Amino acid sequence: ATTEIYTLSLHDALPIWDEQRFFACISQLRTCKSRLEIEKAVLMIIIDMFERSIVFNVAAPELVAELSFGVASEKSEGPTTLLKLAIPLDDQPIFQEVIMTGQLYYGFHSDSSYQHMLYREIGPPENPEVLLVPLVRANRVVAVIYADFGSKPVLSPALKFLEALLQFTTAQISVTAYRQKLKSMLEASAGV
Predict the structure, then answer these.
(1) Residue 101 neighbours by CB distance under 10 Å
(2) Cα separation of 127 and 155, whole Å?
């Protein structure tokens, strides 16, 4: 099955979000000190638009679930740790494409059949429209956030804001990694 990467226009419809909410999210992301905090902050953004979501860490040859909402617990509980869910990297070509390109994908997911490991584990969404958000550090996708509408009707997510948040998140993940590396180096040199 072929997939297409969604290309954003600056004039996409924004029925769910507004600029005030966007800037509040940016402020929240600025305070994050680790990749896990960033992942949780992004999930809190996605939770407003989708019914279920999973953060998968890219650990070749598989994607390992770390956090989720609406999967192992109720959506209202917010992001929770998701243990023992790993899917082969080649389970769904759409994941491979997002990992290779580093671009956000939103659209029809032709691979949303029950035969794939992901849907055997969490059940297929009623509607095949999905969101995949790559989390990038140093030009490498380190995690992918998957989101779908579960059994709810599809709403138009605010893709313009999600794309902008992806760009900011990429920068924030890199800054966080550099801070942690610098801290480790300073601690190591102080111990010498």
Answers:
(1) 12
(2) 11
